[in-house]
Amino acid sequence: MIAHVHVDAPVITIDRPFDYEVPEQFEALIEPGMRVSVPFGSRRLLGIVVGTSDGTRDGLKPLEALLDEESSLTDELLALSIHVKETTLCFRSSALLAMLPAALKVSYDKEIKEGHVPDGVRLGTHLSEYPKEVQSVILGLAKKGELILAPVLKEKKTVKTDVVVELLDATVVPKRAKKQLEAVDLLKETPRMYWSALRQIGLTRPQLQKLADLGAVRLTEVELNRDPYATIEQVEESVQLNDSQASAVLAIQEAEAGETLLVHGVTGSGKTEVYLESIGQVIDEGKQAILLVPEISLTPMMVKRFKRRFGDRVAVLHSALSKGEKYDEWRKIKRNEVDVVVGARSAIFAPLDRLGLIILDEEHETTYKQEENPRYHARDVAIWRARYHGCPVVLGSATPSLESYARAQKGVYRYLHLKERYGGEMPPVHIIDMRRELAKGNTTMFSEELFQGILDRIEKKEQCVILLNRRGFTTFVMCRDCGEGMTCPHCAVNLTYHQYGDRLKCHYCGYEVGMPSTCPSCNSKKIKQFGSGTQKIETELLNRIPEARIIRMDQDTTSRKGSHEQLLRRFEEGEADILLGTQMIAKGLDFPNVTLVGVLAADATLGMPDFRATERTFQLVTQVAGRAGRGKLPGEAFVQTYNPDHYVIETASEHDYETFFAKEMGLRQVGNHPPYWFLTLVTFSAKNPLVAKAEAELFASDFLQAHVENSRLNGPMPAPLSKLKNAYRYQVFIKTKQPDTLYAELARLQQARAKAISKKEYQMSIDVNPYVFM
Ligand code: ADP
Ligand code: ZN
Ligand code: ZN
Questions:
Q1: How many A from CA of 490 to the centre of ligand 2?
Q2: Residue 539 pLDDT more than 60?
Q3: Which ligand neighbours the alpha carbon of 492 most closely?
Q4: Of 90, 111, 506, 765, whose CB neighbour count within 10 A is largest?
Q5: CA 333 to chain centre
Q6: What percent of the chain has pLDDT over 70?
Q7: CA of 495 to the centre of ligand 3 (A)
Q8: Could you give the CA distance from residue 209 to residue 215 in angstroms, rounded to a whole number?
């Protein structure tokens, strides 16, 4: 017997199945989709069996071991990997591995746990301790269910505790203790900090203990990474759907096999109720559902509603779970012990085999696209799987992506509209012209109206959400004397300032240095952070309203796993008046007591060099304004901008998606942008800039010679991020109306370069339907 095996080596020259002899003792056990260990050159690699055939051939090496008792990937997922390869131009092995939980991407051993063991085999030992023949006997028994094997991961045990450090008395710290004083200074700003954050400044554990012994701080050990939903109980709730919700549910129920439906529902229209009801029906029919959310830690309330409704029948693939815990969830799914899988992007590969419905909530979010190989979009995978299972796909959003709305208009997707809020009005949105504030002499971050609004809510014990739109500009450092910025030595980008430890970091390659006290080029002391951060705003608010209770959510306060949920829970429980944060607070929050939303620098994202900048800004403003007035109390939103007449700001303030869409589509047509054309970005990078440029030029000329129908090429040109991790980068853009023809041609051009690429002379990366143009 011969096994066809894809090996885990992301090199284009070996992106094809290799044949191995199947030793006799494995013949009855081996199945496509199983993980195996195979000799490859001098190495031993993880491989996935994609097929078997009878007979044998001279010179075949035998495969070494089976790593699964049953296949890890279903026939469906094996077929899907070919589709992912063809439409994203990745290696099939990367597609296959993307479908497995992290724990299965390494080879692992097995513990012989319980059951009948053959002579000479002891419980509690590991499979690898026995000779090959004995191993296959053990695997055979396990397959028959007479023996239970438990995988033992080669995983470092994840730390599950942390220590909360609380400042008690700063004055008892001796002057000589530099590190301790530094820590105490940080604690003066943030009186409760985690040890994991404090150690970033170089404070050691004995130094921390010393502080506690002196009585300067109190230490409390806390547990981390617990299942955040463990305590939620299932409750029988019956909601009465309104007419538009009921007709959406009916349309989903009666959808044709493989049909895609776009549920366009304004914020608070009850899309989640529609999902819950539709999934309930699917379960009643004995089928299963997948619900995708953009980012699971930012949608705790949504997940809670699912847990409450479906209890143990829901598997939540949460990012805060350890590898092992995720693997446990995955195995429950694989054994078909759950009816609903809730998770972010990669949950689309959940190995369910009675799929009856797939839902993508907030379908416009770009987190559904993976930005590394395989560069798949969860929506495309969802549509493929739905066709395979003959079930519908539901795309839900208050601000659909232009691509999806255009498809709905053309009748490719079925369009369902929830025009009104459930039991309420859309909040009025006030546009505030910040130029006028400036003319009035107001140089603070808050307009008079917004500030009064906040005061008023604090008095009434209602809550506020304040968004600082700061994607695109981070806190960077520049010398005020010579103008020199601090840039990464390996990448052509500014370093970002981090408060913890007073350090500068490169967000692309991880390089970091301490914040210098003088300018490295002119020695001036006037080296300073620029850019307006949430921290600065928090300070400004506290100076003006000392009694305000503020929860700040940004990169600094949410770097630890589980911290998102914790901050949101505190806000939900009324522990703060104001939730202040970056983009991450714009999504999916449903707090009934929030009656005011403020958007600072609404237009900050408009100027970004990306044809989707307008669409992103529209989505952001609409979504965050939609957080106001979701309960019984009416809400309102204030949008501060220097571009009050911009069509994005105007249409977003009027909750007018249709006008925005019409205007934007006109611009996309003129600019030859998606959705009128399918876009592909090809990037060449090499340590030698001349090589990168020459390869990009050669590619462009080869492409033009191929005369791909209905396609155009732009470039090559240097990438905006012209140097990354010491490699120089050039880009080529290709637009097409015939994606399948284009992808086939690109695969050919990629294959022709396989040798040079595997020798690492340069790299070529293909991004189909890109969202990031750096
Ligand atoms: P969306 O997902 O569209 O933003 P939600 O499903 O979160 O909207 O609904 C907004 C609020 O209205 C929620 O608090 C929800 O419980 C409530 N709601 C929506 N539909 C109903 C209904 N049919 N019956 C009772 N409450 C509803
Ligand atoms: Zn200088
Ligand atoms: Zn860098």
A1: 21
A2: yes
A3: 3
A4: 90
A5: 21
A6: 95
A7: 8
A8: 10
Question: What average pLDDT score do residues 609-620 get?
Answer: 89
| Contact in structure between 721 and 491 (CB atoms under 8 Å) | yes
Question: Is residue 479 a part of any domain in this protein?
Answer: no
Looking from the CA of residue 240, the nearest atom of ligand 1 is 23
Is residue 124, in this structure, part of any structural domain at all?
yes
**CATH number of 740's domain:** 3.30.70.360
Residue 77 belongs to domain with CATH number: 3.40.1440.60
The Cα 339–Cα 352 span in angstroms is: 9
Asked if 132 and 143 sit in the same domain, the reply is: yes
Beta-carbon contacts of 515 under 8 Å, excluding residues fewer than 6 positions away, are: 477, 497, 502, 503, 504
Please tell me whether residues 90 and 112 are part of one structural domain.
no
| 497-532 burial: b if 16+ Cβ within 10 Å, else e | bbbebebbbbebeeeeeebeeebeeeeeeebebeeb
Pick the closest to residue 500 from 721, 176, 104, 193 (CA basis). Answer: 193
What ligand 1 atom has the least distance to the C-alpha of 272? Answer: 6
Maximum Cα–Cα distance across the chain: 90
What residue owns the CA closest to ligand 1's atom 9? 270
Q: CATH code at 290?
A: 3.40.50.300
Domain residues for the domain of 212 are 161-223
> In a 3-state reduction of DSSP, which class is residue 80?
helix
Pocket test for ligand 1, best of 237, 272, 657 (most atoms within 8 A of CB): 272
Shared domain for 188 and 203, answered yes or no, is yes
Ligand 3 center to 726 CA (angstroms) = 8
Which residue in the block uniquely carries the two structure tokens 């349309």?
251
pLDDT tens by residue, 235-283:
777 788 999 999 999 999 999 999 999 999 998 899 999 999 999 999 9
According to DSSP, the β-strands at 217-223 and 288-292 are: unpaired
Region of residue 286 (phi > 0: left; psi between -120 and 50: alpha; otherwise: beta): left
Report whether 464 belongs to an annotated binding site.
no
Count of domains forming the chain: 6
What's the predicted TM-score (pTM) here? 0.82
Does some domain include residue 732? yes
| The dihedral formed by the CA atoms of 29, 33, 36 and 39, expressed in degrees to the nearest 10 | 120
> 85 and 217, same structural domain?
no
